[in-house]
Amino acid sequence: MPELPEVETIRGDLAQAVVGRIITTVEWLDARIVRGDVRGTDLAARLVGRQGAAVARRGKFLVWRFTSGAGLLLHLGMSGRLTVGSPSGTWPRHTHLVLALSSGTTVQLVDPRRFGRVAWLEPPAEGPGGMGPEPLSPRFTAERLGKILAGRRAPIKAVLLDQRRVAGLGNIYVDEALFRAHLHPARAAGSLATREVGALHRAIRRVLREALADRGTTFLDYRDAYGQVGVHAARLGVYGRAGEPCRRCGTPIVRMVVAARGTHLCARCQPSAGVPETDAETNV
Ligand SMILES: [Zn+2]
Questions:
Q1: Do 157 and 91 reside in the same domain of the chain?
Q2: HEC states along the chain?
Q3: Active site residue 155
Q4: Domain that holds residue 16
Q5: How many angstroms does the Cα of residue 248 sit away from the middle of ligand 1?
Q6: Which of 111, 156, 164, 212 could cross-link to 116 by cystine, CB 3.0-4.6 Å?
Q7: Which of 3, 6, 8, 176 is catalytic?
Q8: 143 in catalytic set
Q9: One of 11, 21, 50, 60 is an active-site residue; which one?
Q10: Which of the four pLDDT bands, split at 50, 70 and 90, describes residue 232?
């Protein structure tokens, strides 16, 4: 699933293509991906004639804001791709949305697994509520992270994946941040010392910044809005590297299940001291 660095990369691409441009036609809209009160043909009718004002990101959501104050909320789901391209008249399979712009280009949403979704936003077009802080915002301090983790018995990994606690993190960057911070993913969130919270805070921000500079991580599906891969995979420390040597100590990376998710770690760099026994035994 695209996480913060991937969605932010697409946000920048989309903004370049749509700000100042008018949606001239809704070439195709699959009603099954539409959420909210404004459905199907109503949504299509509202989109036509709108001029793009900005594209914002909140967590893993995009908000295409129009000059009228309304907006279109987009979520790419597990494998959705948002592509800016030239009109061809024929769309690939699993195309769910095609918007033609006054610039002569189109914006297409293609998603084989159809977990992507769109929704109309009334003015002021704000993103989804109920989400935790943006980890790259100045307001996401080590103290704030400490308060988010404090008192929680759930594994750190589960808390960091929860969008209500911190917005935009997913499986890849949580594993990477915990590796960099030398923390075992199954440790209880509330068990971290202040020094460890500080290390985790730095690790989260660093890995996200580096991944942004690399325009994201591509394993299978992810592409930017121009179809290009993100190159951060070459720099990953643990994610997707089971059996390969740790870049720090040479110990083979292991994969286990934490918070019901495949989790990658170095058992030497991320000691299991303090991990509840039942969690430490979920090795697969
Ligand atoms: Zn190691």
A1: no
A2: CCCHHHHHHHHHHHHHHHECCEEEEEEEECHHHEECCCCHHHHHHHHCCCEEEEEEEECCEEEEEECCCCEEEEECCCCCEEEEECCCCCCCCCEEEEEEECCCCEEEEECCCCCCEEEEECCCCCCCCCCCCCCCCCCCCHHHHHHHHCCCCCEHHHHHHCCCCCCCCCHHHHHHHHHHCCCCCCCEHHHCCHHHHHHHHHHHHHHHHHHHHCCCECCCCCCCCCCCCCEHHHHCCCCCCCCCECCCCCCECEEEEECCEEEEECCCCCCCCCCCHHHHCCEC
A3: no
A4: 4-121
A5: 5
A6: 111
A7: 3
A8: no
A9: 60
A10: very high
